[in-house]
Amino acid sequence: MTIAQVIVDVPSLGTDRVFDYSIPKKWEGMIQPGMRVAVPFGPRSIQGFVVRLNEHTDVEKIKNIIQPLDLAPVLNEELLQLGNWMTRETISYKVSVFHAMLPVAMKAKYEKIIRKKDDASLFLDELLEGKQEISWKEAEKRNLLPALYKEIQSGNAEVIYFVKNRARKKLKRVVELTVEKDKLEELLHALPSNAVNQKKLVFHLLQSNNGMSEAADLAKKAEVPASAIKALVKKGILSEHMVEEYRDPYEHKDFKKTSPLPLTNEQQTAMKPILQSIEQQSHETFLLYGVTGSGKTEVYLQAIQEVIKQGKEAIVLVPEIALTPQMVERFKGRFGSDVAVLHSRLSIGEQYDEWRKIQKKEVKVVVGARSAIFAPFEHLGIIIIDEEHESSYKQEEIPRYHARDVAIKRGEYHQCPVILGSATPSLESFARAQKGVYHLLTLSKRMNDRAMPPVSVVDMREELRSGNRSMFSTELFERIKDRLQKKEQTVLFLNRRGHSTFIMCRDCGYVMQCPHCDISMTYHRSSNEMKCHYCGFQTGVPTECPECSSNHIRYFGMGTQKVEEELVKLLPEARIVRMDVDTTTRKGAHERILEHFQSGKADILLGTQMIAKGLDFPNITLVGVLSADTTLHLPDFRAAEKTFQLLTQVSGRAGRHELLGEVVVQTYTPEHYSIQLAAMQDYQRFYNEEMSMRKIGSYPPFYYLALVTVIHEDLLQVVTVTEKISSFLKSNISKEAILLGPVASPIPKINNRYRYQCLIKYKREPNLFSALRKILEHYNPQTSRDGLSITIDINPYNMM
DNA sequence: AGCACGCCGACT
DNA sequence: GTCGGCGTGCTC
């Protein structure tokens, strides 16, 4: 008997291990490790992943696998191994890790139905209105469950559990000629004279060249109803069958074929060691540090070309917001149909189909966001992470992995190079490059030798002092007007959407807070309501102060919405487009706005984060950063780094082509080194400066971090538990490690639940992970019963 | 995570 | 007496 060891689809501590199942004879040899199966688990049936086959088992009451859910493994040997490693490194459950590796369509849906038995009672017949079965949901809705319970207990009905496979393939109907073309002429005459449409169709087939075509398509082209095709199928002239079809998100797009560009000297120098690593099939991590516009992408493209030439495959990771059609175009343009694209804006079905192209080895390259790092290639030749410093490579849900770590792990397995590319590398990566752990490659010149645009920093305190209370400094405003006149384009950047950040009473200083969270509420103009961005609580806008009844309520802070209103008022002749989460939710909105701007139908593009990347339009000659401080004062040790990166990134949008560009940065803290050095485009000095700050604060890259957050509705309980965890950790880690806490989280209450945390800073702590696991085990009873929640984030990016 | 089982208080 | 509340422990 063959035994399958299965990881079941139950993310909990008690079930985070293999369960043995016997494989029924009919599937012996067919069921393999890496396949999904449906298995009985307690009274239900659920999904599971086979991780190993075995000859024997110690389990006495073993059950059969119900059925396989795949025809071929969805996780290969490498990914199963990688799963083990990730489980250890992120302290999460195996199933969660497996799900993170696969398209969402492979996550099972469960369904329960109540089915009547043969010898059912009359009463039950009445309940089910004569039907055989009813879905659990339906019964619940119609409040039939109490009555049905009794019927189940007395054996008149039973509960049946289903595992529903959501991974549906799209099918299309195609027809094919079964006779030789020269026979068609005869057939045309043999058809009855009243079969006008059939004749028309045969005539069309005579003229067209190819044998196989999609049924719906053919009907349209021949201008006949579908029934004509059916008739010919019936007569045996056409044969009909279903063919699997991919949902192609880029179906209606033509990609202009491009060929390799000649490389600059710098690019060639950078290329050499990469090619060497590809050729020698040795793993090495490269940090490609190249200023904006230095041609990193061309290096990627030519390295991939070499990999493909060797018959191997490539993964390219790009931050989610940078996955614009422009970016996709560059890869599809070079490698055509060899490219699959994976990101979360595709539908579940589209994601599944792109994934299947990879699994079936129909593509050589995948370009995608974070989770594309798990692309099931078996002969990886290179992994590229563009904009390496982006925080979106860290997953903020369980399993909290970093795509960079996974990339390097896979690079080791496949013995292939990993390239981390950035104009503003993360401190972690640059430090590793300095130490020689990564191989540093530098592109210091822009491709067309164009100088970086001059950046001027405007002190907004000065503006205020000289009586300018608007959100535009005189300098920025004059320049916008100048561009309008010259018919050149302006990009305005503000890292905050919405209207106003908070409202405050001028008399007593009251700021409206969310009653469920420790955070001020945001004013939304469109709905004219106050909203909490953390729990979604909404309430009306007060007309008088709840504290002192004054009516001097004023709006503070600005979002993109407010800036837009202001611009319309000040520059009524300007054509403005706004781009932020609120204007890009609908599918394709992103592309439409950019297209609109690119074609010159707007003068000013106003937006958040998402316009900082990839924009490359020749007519942009002015970039304005309305408030450089927004990211700077967050309670996050990476705040300065993020600010520097963002400013550098945004500045790079101006003057990329013939026209010269300039950048205006508005700030209340012009003396801060991240703003100063970003204005001077001096990464190296910023790196040195920031490194000394990190050293003083004992932060990465000098230390690793682990963050434990305790959440519960009872404050006392939260504090007690966090204290206990803290002292337990203290006795389990070495003297070299630093333990901070317990302290309240930066947002101490969300959704009426208090949050406390402790932070561990460490260098080498072999016992830390097992200590953290012990904490989870110890509090497991309380977590499941008492609503206590403990989260562990290894190397957190979001400290909230 | 779900689900059954089992033990207690509140009604028919 | 029975119904149904939720604490406890198990799932190959």
Automatic annotation (TrEMBL):
Q: What does this protein do?
A: Initiates the restart of stalled replication forks, which reloads the replicative helicase on sites other than the origin of replication. Recognizes and binds to abandoned replication forks and remodels them to uncover a helicase loading site. Promotes assembly of the primosome at these replication forks.
- Does the keyword field hold Cytoplasm? no
- Gene name linked to the record: priA
Alphabetized NCBIfam families for the sequence: priA, PRK05580.1-3
Pfam families, alphabetized: DEAD (PF00270), Helicase_C (PF00271), PriA_3primeBD (PF17764), PriA_C (PF18074), Zn_ribbon_PriA (PF18319)
Name under which the protein is recorded: Replication restart protein PriA
Taxonomic lineage from the root? Bacteria, Bacillati, Bacillota, Bacilli, Bacillales
Give the top-rank taxon of the lineage listed in the UniProt record for this protein.
Bacteria
Q: Does the keyword Ribonucleoprotein apply?
A: no
